[in-house]
Sequence to fold (306 residues):
Amino acid sequence: MNKKGKILVVGSSNTDLVIQTDHLPVPGETILGGNFFMSHGGKGANQAVAVAKLGGDTAFVGKIGTDLFGKQSCELFNKYGIDTTYLYKDEQTPSGVALITVDKNAENCIAVASGANMKLTPADLKHSMSAIDEAEVILVQLEIPMDTVEYVVKAGKEKHKKVVLNPAPAQKLSEELLNGLYLITPNETEAELLTGRKVTDVVSAEEAAQIFLEKGVENVIITLGSKGSCLYNKKESLFIPAFKVKAVDTTAAGDVYNGALCVRIAEKAEWKDAIVFANKAAAISVTRAGAQASVPTRKEVEEFKL
Ligand code: ATP
Ligand code: RIB
Fold:
């Protein structure tokens, strides 16, 4: 294995309150008979835990409250060996919470109370500059303020880091933000919102990817759920099918995918190997309930066979 670089994840941390139901409720409907569980979540934290469990050298920059939820998240990061030197605390604001319903087809509906996540400022990132300096790969999502995302991307780009943006949940992005990203990893709906092209398959994914490449993104990976994922850059285009598994909960499939991908990028893997690894890790995760609770270990991914 090549020498691996450090991976800095900048993003949100939530506690997920999950109810498993027969179907997702429609407005005004009450569904009885669900199962309840709590799970550590938040796109940033899920991705950091995925990186750590899959063998990456990880630091996490985020903001939590001083409540029990934040404390428990922090304890878990430390358990996984994630560097939390720059995990900030806000005494006035609660830690992030997500209310999630998962139905019998593994589909979900999520409402997030961002809390302290939305208090992570560019000034906090300025204060975390040594973590940016030490990183080789920087992974960011969109559950923190956009000006903070823009600050990280700009600082990472200026310092010649591989900046990876998982543009979730979907939001419009500035041209400056897109220009110079090492990699963007939208799913179908995010790709459509950002490019105006409806993405449903490999052909439409390639059309959307061309728009990102024209805007100065170096590499584009579009994830297509149970269909798989595809990579486009100026030299190659690849489609790697997903592994066929029985999904019970797809929450955090994209997070596990992004964490896994960055682990292999930091290990200087070829794109094809990195994507197969990410597809495997995400496939295992959808067979398990919960967000961070569903992240497989490196050994599980390496031994994964259908
Ligand atoms: P989510 O929002 O559910 O976390 P996402 O919408 O960001 O995920 P997807 O495109 O749904 O991302 O999934 C990411 C990757 O996870 C896919 O490219 C695929 O490799 C894997 N995956 C997702 N769903 C399934 C499934 N049902 N079976 C196997 N693999 C899956
Ligand atoms: O991507 C899944 C995550 O989205 C959940 O863990 C939830 O907390 C929301 O942030």
Residues 117 and 125 are 13 Å apart (CA to CA). The chain has one domain: 6-13+42-93+117-302. The first strand starts at residue 6 and ends at 10. DSSP finds eleven helices and 13 strands in the chain.
